[in-house]
Amino acid sequence: MNPLRILLADDSVSVGKYISNLLRDNGHAVTHVQSGEEAIAAFHEAPPELVLMDIEMPGMGGLEAIKKIRKILLPVRVPIIVITSHAGEATLLDSFMAGADDYLTKPVEPLQLDIRIQAMMRIVSAQRSTAAMVDNVMEGIIRIDRVGRITAFNKAAETIFGYTPGEVLGHNVKMLMPNPDRDRHDEYIGNHVATGERKIIGKGREVVGLRKNGETFPMHLGVSEAETPDDRFFIGVVRDLTIEKALRSKLAESRNFLADVIENIPSVTYVKNRQGRKLLVNRKYEEVTGKLREQVLGKLDSEIYAPAEAEAYRVSDLEVMRSGQALQVEESLSTADGEKYFLSVKFPTRNPAGEITGICGISTDITQIKHYQRELERLSQYDELTGLFNRRHFMSLARHELSRSARYGGELSLLMLDVDHFKRVNDDHGHRAGDLVLAALSREIRQALRETDIPGRLGGEEFAVLLPETGAEQAQQVAERLRQAVAGKTIDIGDEKRLACTISIGVAAKPAGPSADLENLLHRADTALYAAKNAGRDRVVSAGFDRPA
Fold first, then answer.
1. Which of 461, 473, 480, 519 is catalytic?
2. Which one, out of 113, 211, 316, 402, has a CA that is 20 to 30 A from the CA of 145?
3. Does the annotation count 461 as an active-site position?
4. What's the predicted TM-score (pTM) here?
5. 11: left (phi over 0), alpha (psi -120 to 50) or beta
6. How far is the C-alpha of 537 from the C-alpha of 500, rounded, in Å?
7. Residue 545's pLDDT is what?
């Protein structure tokens, strides 16, 4: 727990110095005064978190000072410990009736002092936590007693109304209202207390507020009643509607033109304030998201979309407001129809003074373009007929794999294969039959390979397969299994005709050592392929061997 700010009132210089030193040794900040009058003045100037009050002092005594301190309105109750040489029941009773919370007897023992301080630190810690929670709420929170006096005023309320807590605590809350609400406020509270009738209690409504500088502004006000075993009070929650009202007013002024343009523009269009709350969405937004505007206006993205999407939108929104510049960004959205992609242009909105008030976004659906891009990317990498990698992409992957193999010393082999007498297939049965043969061969290749293997069509009836982490002997086995699989099947070429085909395969293994050259490996495999064809076709030949595999 953090140290406390402590006000010590004791007319004895030596006692005050003694207690102050004990407290300061434990890290506490201590203000020492020597009379009740000085204690009240110090309390007004800088309210402490704990008061240690000597009962007997010249002039105003400690008990009278405690009574006056308790009349000072603060958001939290400051604990008071009395210090006395007389611990009789009458003295203690008088102390507690004055408003003290605990006592210490003189001479003050360090252990007793430390125990009392530790107990008060627990209370103050809880008060700090509650105050921090209230002060970090986005809405203004104002606590009001049964007669309408302000007893608490959080940070947001300070920002909204322009007052400090010291300027409003103890004053009637109607100081924050212009007429006619100001004149009717006491009547509202009195009627509720007397009859229990709820005209404004428990209801949220839009009203007009009054700032310290005399400016009136629109706000949303919700008033609720709270009751504890010791007290009953009211809580007002205020949200400044200035920005929203200003935007609504501007839109209303140009409704015949601007609103119709926004409503009918074929792009998703929306406006958010600085906090990210939606102030406007158009018809296209409703169509694309499937959410009606009444479901989203006034809400944050985190209340509407999936967390990852909301976070991405907020990041770009904040960048627009930080830079004050327009931003173009690609965004995605999960909808009932699947994932959609948008090219969003976001720019800051400003008030007449040039201050940034939020962002406006115009998002164009580029889902179809994205699909085209992916299809183009697929076509740039794959052979359309066979579904294998095309020559360019195969060569790129092969160079990368060869480089990796050379760097880490792994084995690697390459197969070159083509269909025997393929020209005869085209001549005798037509090019459609030839295409069916190539497609069937590609299926056999994929079935015979591992996921890590890299198959490609180099052109015509010529194919290549790169086998990572595969030596010459294992590559020969793969090639032979593939050859046998093709030779053992016939291919349906239509018109109730089936065609038997065979393939020839050349095998080349990467030589040992760090050097790696794809062109050389392709040449060796291609040479082995031609050796297989010259040896009668329908066979596997490995580079570096004089006989078929």
1. 461
2. 211
3. yes
4. 0.41
5. alpha
6. 14
7. 39
